[in-house]
Amino acid sequence: MAQLLIDLVKQQFGVAVLETHSLRGDETLTVEPNAWLAVCRFLRDTPRADMNMLTDLTAVDYPDREPRFEIVAHLVSLAKGHRLRVKTRVGDEEGDAEVDSLCELWAGANWLERECFDMFGVRFTGHPDLRRILLYPEFEGYPLRKDFPADRIQPLVPYRDVPNIDKLSPFGRDEGMSFGRQTHSGPETDDDSPVN
Amino acid sequence: MGELKKTTTQVMEPGGPGESFATTRFASILAWAQKYSLFMNPFVTACCGMEFMAVSSPRYDFSRFGSEAPRFSPRQSDLLWVVGTITQRQAPVLKRIYEQMAEPKWVLAFGTCASCGGFYDNYACVAGIDKIIPCDVYVPGCPPRPEAVLDGLMLLQDKIQRGDRTPAIVKPRQDPVAEPNMGLVQLRRSRPSIV
Predict the structure, then answer these.
(1) pTM, to two decimals
(2) Tell me, what's the ipTM?
(3) Which residues of A touch B151 (CB under 8 A)?
(4) B128 Cα to chain A: minimum distance (Å)
């Protein structure tokens, strides 16, 4: 079924279709980035395709490839019940990537593209409100890129400066077990002031 | 007053059991009152919240320990339950809530994420709330069993009774088998290990 969809797009766009893939009902279409919006609009508006729902939009980082990012959109036709995955490839070696926004086609693309921008730094031209959605605005870098250091953290509040913060034992030697708990008498104080 | 005799509180009953008066120290009786009237502020952020609900509901029922009343204002609460993963984005909120609580105040880290971050060793999460605020008791588990939570609560009560205000820190990761002199209790093995 969806093979017919691929043929339909190939017929319409010709050389803009870079690659197709079809395995056990799992159809993928890779297109040129400058045809990205046009192909998606075609898939939405053509009655034979009728892809009226965007279920997911994300990116994949392939640091060894040029272009570096693959933008992936998953489309569904609720009326006809078929699915299609559309991909495009953008981005140079430094990670500077730009692709057309799909917000004007599917309103649900808004937050998906914001998340994609948040995690990969892909800029979507034509997006009404492109800013971080999950991370905080002070965050530097894009954490789902493969070259983001795995141990890099950016705390908003400074961590406490306590010696041996990771090393002190929480319990005395005779504590931590039910039979050891009650054996520990408190610090001996002579005055009757509350210990606070 | 029956439980006073069994705990760390020093109580003398000069007239013998059953008499109508007992003597104690003011700090002890104050701590006894504090440990059985912990007003709690649940800071519930993740899946541990389900287990928190289980502990608070009748089957396990931590209101038996005087930890009955939730107060969703930090100014009215004594015990801050940090239940779930704390992200870097949420850390300022948690710190603000802790600072708004009035002394005396205690913090209980509920679950692995709040205690040390667990497997969330990444860009988004705080590896344990003790990186931000002092923490009194850690309850490990993902999520912890209600029995473990009650054990943690009883440890906190014991800590309050002792008047011990030192914040507890996560235990070092050491192997009790390799270091038998650590003072940890050895697990009894019913049969020799195969390895």
Answers:
(1) 0.74
(2) 0.71
(3) 178
(4) 10
